């Protein structure tokens, strides 16, 4: 009689978190990178609403007319690199902190307080993810806001470092936290809740891979819309603060107060329709790709606390 094939052990510990991190890195870099043209237009609208004031499609035509079609890919390098690093910390960190929270408070308590668990885990993960993202996001915004500033990621990063120092990369760290933490918390909480509501109507174990991916897309799209609205004002402030370097003696807090006063409520939400398209599409794609890569890597034994 032939010997039975050994059962492959499911990944656990650092191995499991590493697979989550890799899946997150890929899904974030691919989706954000793919939306670079939309991000360019969104940033233009935020920084110069007087010029780009006729909606997203008109802004696309204006950018192409004024700077050429190639301008729509400005900042693609920093976008891919920045969100590869950010995605690893965000998704890997979220799974890590969620598992740690459950271990700390117990599964039943976690289930009773799962929105708090989702929120704390997402916020903690995003803090570290933003540290990784901030220098590359500062480079991207400078490339988009100042045509001709440098040729791509290496040139832009090196120029800022040489002329303004390391601190210039983190001038927008406050705004990026104000943007990314509410965005990420809303994104994960909304996705978990929408997924929970959808999967409650079906037997997940009997659903095909395609059906599960479709659920991830739908829940991700709705989560993206919610996250975009919550984080829009901080996103606009981030674009403004990274457009130019600070004046002599001007601190980050004073710059934020000044920018907020200049923007007002309406200005804070400039470019929101474009960002809804971008963030909705990005978030839907992220969760769909993330789920598929996790399956491919055998990383399907993450911490689940939905009832």
UniProtKB/TrEMBL annotation:
Q: What's the main place this protein lives?
A: mitochondrion
Biological processes, Gene Ontology terms: mitochondrial phosphate ion transmembrane transport
Topology of the protein relative to the lipid bilayer = Multi-pass membrane protein
Q: Which InterPro entries match?
A: MCP_dom_sf (IPR023395), MCP_transmembrane (IPR018108), SLC25A3/Pic2/Mir1-like (IPR044677)
Please report the residue spans annotated as repeat (Solcar): 15-100, 113-197, 211-296
Q: Which Pfam families match?
A: Mito_carr (PF00153)
What subcellular compartments does it reside in? Mitochondrion inner membrane
Protein origin, superkingdom: Eukaryota
Query: What Gene Ontology terms describe where this protein resides (cellular component)?
Result: mitochondrial inner membrane
Transport as a keyword? yes
Q: Does the keyword Mitochondrion apply?
A: yes
Transmembrane regions: none
Query: Any idea which UniProt keywords this protein has?
Result: Membrane, Mitochondrion, Mitochondrion inner membrane, Repeat, Transmembrane, Transmembrane helix, Transport
Picking any one GO molecular function of the record gives:
phosphate transmembrane transporter activity
UniProt lists the family membership as follows:
Belongs to the mitochondrial carrier (TC 2.A.29) family.
This protein is called: Mitochondrial thiamine pyrophosphate carrier 1
The upper taxonomy is: Eukaryota, Fungi, Dikarya, Ascomycota, Pezizomycotina
